[in-house]
Amino acid sequence: MYAYKTGIGPIDALKGGLEPGTGILVLAPAQSSGEQLGYALTRPRPGEYAVILSTTMRSVDVRDFLAGTGFNRDFIGIIDSVTKLSTPGIADSMEVKYVASPSDLTGIGIKFSSLMESIFQGEFSSSTQALFPPPVRFYVDSLTTMLMYRKLEVLYQFLHVLNTRLKKMESLGIYILNGQSFDERTISLMRQLMNVVIEVKTGPEGEFLRIHGIPGVTREWMEFTVGQGSVEVKV
Amino acid sequence: MIRTGISGIDEMLGPGIPEGTRVLFSLEPGVDGRLFMLSTLRSALLDGRRCLVVVPTSNESVFRCDLGAVGGAVAAAGQLTVIDSNARETINHEARSARKRKSCWISLLNDRVKEERIDVLFVYFDLLYEDLGLEGGLEAISVPGTGAPLTTVVEHLNLEGEALISRLASGNIFDLIFSLQSAYTTVPFFNFFTLEHVAWARMPRRSIPYTSTDSHVKLYIPKIIVTGPPYSGKSTFVANASDRGISVDRGDLNGFRTTVAMDLGWLHLKGFDISLCGTPGQPRFDPIIPQLVRSAMGIVLVIDATRPEDLGRARDLMEIAFASKLPLVVAVNKADLPHRLDEQAVRVSLKLREDVPVVFISALRRSDAHMVVEILVERMTVQHF
């Protein structure tokens, strides 16, 4: 079975990475490196692809960020829910698909299917390491924004459908949420959808993460840093 | 009457969608089905109808651009009015309770329908459902027309599946319901729509695959298998049924031509894009038939009316091609020549179910071949995926 490398030592050392179909929730406060941690988990390794749903940054900025962080953008598709508001006539390309707003779940679902289909059918950048099904990391940046636009119950149902599809496609789902902005019920429901939860906290001594949901991996807080699209954990 | 503008669906609905009809396009998450409503809107605008679109997930300029990509100049048409996300924000800001918000929507829609003398109301429903609840949302969009009854067309992202569709159909809330879904393997294998409910006519529940281009929906039959004993006329059938096609034939030692791989044909019939795949009939090619049958949606079994002795081979082919699991039509070919086979003999010999059509044809006649394909398409589309 394929294993998705995370760059987080204790996870990769255990089974070589995460199983296909895993959903990861990164619970991180504002002003932390949580978003960068999400991107580091999303970074496609050789033979892999990534699809990013951006609700906060325009795709042009996401692509600049990815280029500056050393990601291979040829294997990354973006669903941009920001740009269309200011540039209504902008047209989809193979790599970037636009939806009207983060509230447009119909559009997000359609563009997600469209990108996944082009990856599976080999119409996206083709890799020299042709794996089937092609490993795809799907990153939602961020649930915090989506919850501002849609009700919790609706988003829960939508993500449930999306997660089921990701499992069928043997892909990896990565979702970031600011745990401090929402009540316990919201966090609890979002946790229910995921197999793995990575909590992030910041302090004067640095940034720490704690992993839930992987038997055999410590639940202790571990200091980490993120740089150039990679995460380093001090064990 | 208004029309969907989708070839195949409009034929299915006959003269069109009557005035005052409430139409629902229910979209499963991820299925590319937005063109159904946009195409209906384009069609209504081209017919000179005054249309009001309620699109709470988007702003007017984004919506007009999206419509422009599908419908060209109609996006700028004067008879199109749009209520967008700004209206929703204002209502949600000013009215705190769902009850008050519903009142605001009712008065906004009623006013706009009267002022603009709207003929057709188009609603992207899921945010209204979220804000007002199902009953509240439906009440808000139940707007009386000015003079003639108002036709209402709704697109909804259905996160509740069949339960919601059953509720809406059985409650007679919508007169015409299409559900748009994907058949998944590891990736969407194909999109299909199901005609779930028609209030004004007796029509079977039917499902039909489709493909979407940038501006059009095309109904699509991925594969029909044409099989039968050697020399029964399969290649002739495929060639005469198709608009274009290829055949891989070789001459045998007796001078007859026989198919050694497959016949392929493509045709456009009654709004459908259809692919035909003819199998070889010789037993030595039997191992490839199960591969050819994969992802087929129906089978035409061609037998020769002048050769009853070949019915045993036809039975074998039915088994190899899993004919009992797929919609099937038996085409008894060469019926224009003297023959002894009758329908009863065919049915008994092939152990056919009562509902399997047996049609006597001459594959040399294009109209006969088309009739067989039409009968099979009719059978395929009433089968749910």
What structural keywords apply?
heterodimer, A: 235 residues, alpha/beta, ten-stranded mixed sheet, 24% strand, globular, B: 385 residues, elongated
List the helices and strands and how they pair.
The complex is a heterodimer of chains A (235) and B (385).
Chain A: H1 9-15, E1 23-27, H2 34-42, E2 49-54, H3 59-68, E3 76-80, E4 96-98, H4 105-120, E5 136-141, H5 143-149, H6 152-168, E6 172-177, H7 184-192, E7 196-203, E8 206-212, E9 222-227, E10 230-234
Parallel strand pairs in A: 1-6, 1-7, 2-3, 2-5, 3-4, 5-6
Antiparallel strand pairs in A: 7-8, 8-9, 9-10
Chain B: H1 9-12, E1 22-27, H2 34-46, E2 51-54, H3 60-71, E3 80-83, H4 85-94, H5 98-116, E4 120-124, H6 126-140, E5 151-157, H7 162-170, E6 176-184, E7 188-198, E8 206-212, E9 217-227, H8 234-241, E10 244-251, E11 257-269, E12 272-278, H9 289-293, E13 298-304, H10 311-320, E14 328-333, H11 343-350, E15 358-360, H12 366-381
Parallel strand pairs in B: 1-5, 1-6, 2-3, 2-4, 4-5, 9-12, 9-13, 13-14, 14-15
Antiparallel strand pairs in B: 6-7, 7-8, 8-9, 10-11, 11-12
Describe the structure.
- With 235 residues, chain A is of the alpha/beta class.
- Chain A has helices spanning 9-15, 34-42, 59-68, 105-120, 143-149, 152-168, 184-192, and strands spanning 23-27, 49-54, 76-80, 96-98, 136-141, 172-177, 196-203, 206-212, 222-227, 230-234.
- In chain A, a hairpin with a 2-residue loop joins β7 (196-203) and β8.
- Chain B has helices at 9-12, 34-46, 60-71, 85-94, 98-116, 126-140, 162-170, 234-241, 289-293, 311-320, 343-350, 366-381, and strands spanning 22-27, 51-54, 80-83, 120-124, 151-157, 176-184, 188-198, 206-212, 217-227, 244-251, 257-269, 272-278, 298-304, 328-333, 358-360.
- By secondary structure, chain B is an alpha/beta fold.
- The relative contact order of chain B is 0.11.
- The mean pLDDT of chain B is 89.
- The interface between A and B is medium-sized, with 33 and 35 residues.
